[in-house]
Write a structure and sequence with these properties.
- It contains 15 helices and no strands.
- The two termini are 105 Å apart.
- With 465 residues, the protein is an all-alpha fold.
- Mean pLDDT is 83; it is low at 7-15 and 292-300.
Length: 465
């Protein structure tokens, strides 16, 4: 059973891994189509979102929302885009993915770029800060590119070029051809605004060629818009007309009404400079009508963006309050459980203590009875011992008396022969006595001492003597 469950688990893990890989692949396809077909980006992003939601794959859900928001941004639907970005930010935070958070901040900065400079700059700075912390080079390159676009819209073209150079350096190291094309395009726009038309034309034509090779329809249309204005300024009206026609075709391919409106305005400028005022007025009337409608739409979208942001902030605050309430209630619950457990422990200890005391009291009672019995026995033993001690004392006194007598006798009887031995030894040393005679007399003294000792031993064992 264990082996079968292990095989099943491995199979499930493998299936989930394949599904998450499919989500990742879909989001990559969606992101790759953003400059070619923004509607395809939204469609593929929705597929990725549906699959990731079934798998409860937070990173996949977040990235699907993000790329869908990018598609909605390129389709000029800022209200839908901000909703997607906010959802992406929520799921990236759940997945604890800092890089994803920074990507979303970068995208939101782009969304605010045309209508709120301060908010846009704030989000780009957040993206750069996180990107620097985690060392995400590609993310930093895109953030610098977007910052350049922000400064370009504020007419700080030299500052914009500094950021374009930083992003170009990063994308060159990463061999990122798509973003290098966008760098060239944006630098061309900046040089055009600075009236450096030769540099601008060189960069824009090179970027347009590479964009066409990579099927970047959105980029080609945007480049054509700037090139048309450049050729108009240089009085190259035929080239300008061809570029406007080409740009309109691309704007229709990508279904971008805003770009189409911009080409209408460029056509007005072209015809006006040509001196074809009747046609210029026609284009101007169309531009006015489109501009009014788009201005209302833009204003409505901007208001909605702020409302959504405000609602999001309120929701985040409410979520924080809800989390704190849940934590407080959870703390109260576990506190009550802990207090109840402690109370049960105290009651158990009290009951155990009472039982232990009762048992101890019973043991003490038994012990007291045993002590009483032992005391009686000790009293009897002590009485008997006193009798024994009296007898032993008398016996010892008698023995001490005998020992005293023995000592006195021993001192008296043994001392004489020993003194004789010492005297003989001194005489022998001085040569006053013959050696053989000395030995004979010493033998006699030793025999005498031996007889005395035997006699004293007999006296000790003979009660009569």
């Amino acid at each position: 059973m264990f082996f079968a469950l292990q095989i099943y688990a491995n199979g499930v893990d493998g299936a989930i891994g394949q599904d998450t890989d499919a989500v990742i692949q879909l989001t990559k396809q969606a992101y790759g189509a953003r400059l070619t077909n923004a509607q395809q980006t939204i469609t593929t992003g929705n597929k990725a979102l549906e699959l990731a939601t079934k798998l409860n794959y937070n990173f996949g859900i977040a990235e699907a929302y993000r790329v869908r928001g990018i598609g909605q941004y390129y389709m000029n639907d800022p209200e839908a885009a901000i909703n997607s970005y906010i959802n992406a930010l929520t799921f990236f935070k759940k997945a604890n993915n800092k890089k994803g958070e920074a990507e979303v901040y970068n995208n939101i900065g782009n969304l605010y770029r045309d209508n709120n400079y301060g908010a846009s700059l704030e989000y780009f700075q957040k993206a750069i800060e996180i990107g620097s912390q985690i060392g995400a080079k590609a993310l930093l390159g895109r953030a610098y590119l977007n910052l350049g676009n922000l400064y370009s819209r504020e007419k700080s073209y030299n500052q914009a070029l500094k950021y374009y150079d930083q992003s170009e350096e990063i994308f060159t190291a990463l061999h990122d051809s798509v973003n290098l094309i966008q760098c060239a395009q944006n630098k061309g726009v900046a040089y055009f605004s600075l009236d450096q038309l030769d540099k601008a034309e060189q960069l824009l034509t090179s970027a347009s060629k590479k964009a066409k090779e990579s099927d970047l329809n959105e980029t080609v249309a945007s480049i054509d818009l700037t090139l048309a204005s450049l050729y108009t300024r240089e009085n190259k009206f035929d080239q300008a007309s061809k570029i406007v026609a080409e740009g309109l075709d691309y704007s229709h391919i990508i279904n971008d009404d805003k770009l189409a409106r911009d080409f209408e305005y460029t056509s007005y400028q072209l015809e006006f400079k040509r001196g074809n005022y009747q046609q210029a007025v026609h284009y101007l009337r169309d531009v006015y009508l489109l501009d009014s409608a788009l201005q209302k739409t833009s204003l409505y979208a901007q208001i909605n963006i702020y409302e959504i942001k405000h609602k999001q902030e309120q929701q985040e605050q409410q979520n924080i309050i809800n989390d704190q309430t849940i934590k407080y209630e959870r703390a109260q619950f576990w506190g009550a459980i802990t207090a109840a457990c402690l109370l049960l422990v105290v009651i158990g200890l009290l009951i155990s203590n009472v039982k232990r005391k009762a048992k101890t009291n019973a043991q003490l009672t038994d012990l007291n009875e045993e002590v009483s019995r032992q005391k009686d026995n000790l009293d009897r033993v002590n009485h008997h011992l006193e009798e024994i001690i009296d007898e032993r004392t008398k016996d010892l006194q008698l023995k001490n008396k005998k020992l005293s007598e023995y000592s006195s006798y021993l001192s008296h009887q043994i001392r004489g022969p020993i003194a004789t031995l010492k005297g003989l030894m001194n005489l022998e040393k001085e040569g006053l006595v013959d050696q053989q005679e000395c030995i004979t007399m010493m033998d006699k003294c030793v025999s005498e001492i031996d007889e005395k000792i035997i006699e004293m031993s007999d006296m000790m064992h003979d009660q009569g003597r």
